[in-house]
Amino acid sequence: MAKIVPGRVAHQYDGELVVFHIGMTFNRWWRPDLWIPVLLAMRPMLRELSEDPDSGLLGYELLFNSRGPYVAQYWSSIDKLYDYASAGSLSHRPAWTRFNAMARKNPGAVGIWHETFMVERAESMYVGTPAMGLPGATKIMPVEKRHHRARARMADGATSLPASPADRSHPTAGRTD
């Protein structure tokens, strides 16, 4: 059983933060021959990413909703996420190729979806849970008295997005005040 983190905690993270949700839907649940291979393809990818400290994957949570399983992933860089997705030498591209071939032969049997979020500001609160979500993927911080309210945590929850060329020329670029 996972160790419970006592008290109220939140996350702390400075840097680019990307939240990526990816999942599948069991459109024909009576066809496990079609959806089990798709389901089983995710574990090797997560293992591969978790074992490579330079992959950009900060952490993930395996979840399940009424349509099927999905994974909430936390990444340190949008470029690292996209690089992984397109790298032919890693697990994702071959799995994607297999899924597309299956989907062409059995249209609508299994669905795949994803959502990608570049996070400028984030707030979190966990009470009496194991390290999970943003605190599990980044750094766990005890909630101080000044952060007892979500609004205060959000106000102090800025993450750093990479500066665009236009931002670098702005007079306030690089200021921390």
Please outline what is shown here.
The chain has 177 residues and is of the alpha+beta class. The protein is 33% helix and 30% strand.
Describe the structure.
By secondary structure, the protein is α+β, with helices and mostly antiparallel strands. Helices cover 33% and strands 30% of the residues. The strands form 2 sheets. A 4-stranded antiparallel sheet has the order 3-4-2-5. Helix 1 (32-51) runs antiparallel to helix 3. It is elongated and about 55 Å long. Residues 164-177 have low confidence and may be disordered.
Number of helical elements: 6
The percent range for helix content is: 25-40%
- Uncertain runs are 164-177
Question: What percent strand?
Answer: 25-35%
Question: Can you tag this structure with a few keywords?
Answer:
6 helices, 30% strand, elongated, alpha+beta, 4-stranded antiparallel sheet, 3-stranded antiparallel sheet, 177 residues
List the helices and strands and how they pair.
Elements: E1 4-12, E2 18-26, H1 32-51, E3 57-65, E4 68-75, H2 78-86, H3 92-105, E5 110-118, E6 126-130, H4 133-137, E7 139-142, H5 150-155, H6 165-168
Antiparallel strand pairs: 1-6, 1-7, 2-4, 2-5, 3-4
Helix pairs in contact: 1-3
